[in-house]
Design brief:
alpha/beta, single chain, about 25% strand, globular, 12 helices, 8-stranded mixed sheet, UDP-N-acetylmuramoyl-L-alanine:D-glutamate ligase, 14 strands
């Protein structure tokens, strides 16, 4: 793996940025010819921004390669990510006459449904990253890797230079779940699918069985299981680890998987034990679902410290035992509060 003293960044990401509007607490499900009111609403950057914010808030030097529309949505996302979240956007571009994709996310019953409008990016990630990258880790989307329209290879170049590639994959809307889609894993260090995706691709009946099959393809497999926690298998050592979820009152599940992946990357770069990485990632994703939106729901170290203080004060012996390692990880100085999604967004002076 590339050494931190030899690299410009800890994490590099490439993908599409969306402007997300999240609605929660609906009176009822929407139906044709009706109007439904929502009790809560939040706005935040979405898509690949979920991962970028999550890694940056945990202190990882993060660079994002993405295309932004030169509209109000795109310019607001750009300013928030670069100025408030300290994410490097030197490899990103703002394009005239191209609008930012918008997603309406409706959170209900512990999950969410989404409606999106947008267009494929006119600039590929390969073009954005043509100058090369010097990073310890990169997060890549297997769906983008295998897309006949994209043929992204930036991550392969990075892998040959010692970068650890953490791969994810989205839902296969075709219903085929072709194992051929997993062939890019040969160049990856880790794979972090959810349980449904893992079982469908491997034709298995349990997340553990799926993880064992996937471990034959990639050195590290982490299968997230929602309320049932997560499973990890290190094929190099043969270690298998399981971790239950952290009980919380969920508001919005958008981006929880991204927060989990970002947290696991942090633990890997710091060389934590597998069980500790699983516990930390499970906690961070649980803290995220208590907030609106994917990106701005990501916890910072202050959120983690607050949770640890409350947990110890509540004398939950199981959680105290499971997360005792936090005492040594938390920064000595109290972290400031991170920004949260709001019902609306303000225009900068430049846009007024």
């Amino acid at each position: 793996m590339a050494d931190s003293t030899e690299t410009e960044f800890d994490v590099v990401l490439a993908g599409d940025v969306f402007f997300d509007i999240i609605l929660t607490g609906l009176d009822s499900r929407p139906a044709a010819g009706t109007e439904v009111w929502a009790q809560g609403m939040g706005s935040s950057p979405g898509g690949i921004a979920n991962l970028a914010v999550a890694t940056s808030r945990l202190g990882l030097r993060t660079s994002l390669a993405a295309v932004f529309g030169d509209d109000v949505y795109g310019r607001w996302c750009w300013d928030l990510l670069s100025e408030h979240e300290r994410i490097d956007l030197s490899r990103s571009r703002r394009l005239d006459e191209w609008h930012t994709a918008v997603t309406i996310s409706i959170a209900e019953d512990g999950d969410r449904s989404m409606v999106t409008h947008g267009h494929d990016s006119p600039v590929s990630a390969d073009e954005l990253l043509s100058g090369g990258i010097r990073t310890r880790a990169a997060l890549a989307d297997l769906g983008a890797m295998g897309s006949p329209d994209r043929h992204e290879s930036w991550w392969k170049r990075a892998a040959t230079e010692g970068t650890r590639i953490f791969a994810d994959i989205g839902w296969d809307s075709t219903g085929v779940w072709d194992p051929h889609d997993l062939e890019p894993l040969a160049s990856c260090y880790a794979f972090t699918p959810n349980a449904g995706e893992a079982m469908l691709y491997t034709r298995t009946d349990t997340p553990l069985a799926a993880a064992r099959v996937l471990a034959e393809r990639v050195p590290l497999v982490v299968v997230t299981c929602g309320a049932d926690g997560a499973i990890a298998i290190d094929s190099g050592t043969g270690e298998e680890a399981r971790m239950p979820s952290v009980p919380v009152r969920a508001l919005d599940a958008t981006g929880a998987g991204d927060v989990f992946a970002a947290s696991f990357v942090l633990g890997t770069l710091r060389e934590w034990p597998t069980v500790q990485r699983l516990a930390f990632s499970t906690l961070c994703s649980a803290l995220a679902v208590q907030q609106f939106g994917g990106s701005l729901a990501a916890p910072g170290w202050g959120d983690i410290a607050d949770w640890w203080d409350l947990t110890r004060a509540g004398n939950d012996t199981d959680l105290i035992r499971r997360y005792g390692f936090l005492t040594d990880l938390l920064p000595p100085e109290r972290a400031t509060a991170v920004r949260r999604a709001e019902a609306t967004f303000r225009l900068t002076d430049e846009l007024r």
